[in-house]
């Protein structure tokens, strides 16, 4: 039986190194991908929401209803507040009661009552925040600035890494130099062709 | 081996039935959508053919019609009329700060105007009530050195408008929409209203009007949108 260990190892070692290099790339790609899942959901959901901002309010559910108190408001603001809260069955304490002329406004955290003092007609405007999407928008648009800028930058760098490492994770005909190059070309062509057509 | 007579393997809907339903659904959707588009396009055609007093068509190019204003987001300011203040300052001899009652004490303007959003919707005949920026400028005694107006709003939002355009009689500081106090989503208690420019110039949750010697591109203007924003020239992007 020939002694295998006596053979020169050059070719197999070279192949072995290449496999290790791809394996390492895949491992890092996988773990960075795991870490990116949360922020990808935040940015993607917010992106969809804001992209269609002309069709809906991505931050709030806005509703307007009307009520009739059936009587004019008292001239005293405290009495007026008590009357309105009692008639409409509202337990929340308004954070502001503001009267100007014939209009009385009662402000709550997510609600404003516009009351016509002479008629008792109430426009009840409510604005309920959308739980996840509003938070996602806030983060996506970096309303808070400060530390979030660093997280957002890190995420962007992470995405660049994922895109770049993704090109070289697989060898052979399903890799970048196989059919991958066509998909990459199509992905690059879409914005280029769009810009050429739209911007002339 | 699985028995093909087993109910588990029976299709829940025959292929032919499925295709019939699909075709019928598609036709209904297409006809319904077509009728909707035709109805809309008739109204839009009329709006495009109707000239404004300045000769421009009532509906700017590429715009479509909506029945009422869309909020279009933004970082919400405090809707409290009691806590609201408007600072009128900059290149003026008489800087003033108005509260809500003082604003209501000024000459009020009721106007119907068309509103054009950069996302291509237009609302015809929106009804606003407010105070002319020109009256606020007169109150603050704007210096001849001022050439621009910067609308300042909650959380640092700004928009810039040429002074000559901001002093047009239809440019308001608005507090009522359609006869009711401005809704929260539309910038309560007070917003700017510059009807002849794309609507992002009409800053919601308005807190200040600054008259400026130099131009200062605002929030969207520094993010790739047009500095001037004329809907009839389709000045959407820089």
Overall 3D shape of chain A? elongated
Class from helix and strand fractions of chain A: alpha+beta
What value does the Rg of chain B take, in angstroms? 25 Å
In CATH terms, the superfamily of the largest domain in chain B is Oxidoreductase, molybdopterin-binding domain
Derived from helix and strand composition plus strand pairing, the structural class of chain B reads: alpha+beta
User: Any idea what the shape of chain B is?
Assistant: elongated
Query: What is the total tally of β strands of chain A?
Result: 5
Query: Using CB atoms under 8 Å apart, which protein chain pair has the greatest interface?
Result: A-B, 25 and 25 residues
Low-confidence blocks of residues of chain B:
33-38
In terms of DSSP E residues, the strand content of chain A is 15-25%
- The first-to-last residue Cα distance of chain B is 67 Å
Work out the count of structural domains of chain A.
Answer: 3
Helical fraction of chain A equals: 40-55%
The total count of helices of chain A amounts to 5
CATH architecture of the largest domain in chain B, by name, is Alpha-Beta Complex
Please give the CATH class of the largest domain in chain B.
Alpha Beta
Sheet of most strands of chain A: 5 strands, antiparallel
Biggest sheet, spatial arrangement of strands of chain A: 1-5-4-3-2
CATH topology title of the largest domain in chain B? Sulfite Oxidase, Chain A, domain 2
Helix-strand string of chain B: HEEEHEEHEEHEEEE
Q: Sheet with the most strands of chain B? A: 6 strands, mixed
Labels describing this entry:
heterodimer, A: 200 residues, alpha+beta, 3 domains, five-stranded antiparallel sheet, 5 helices, elongated, B: 238 residues, Sulfite Oxidase, Chain A, domain 2, 11 strands, 26% strand
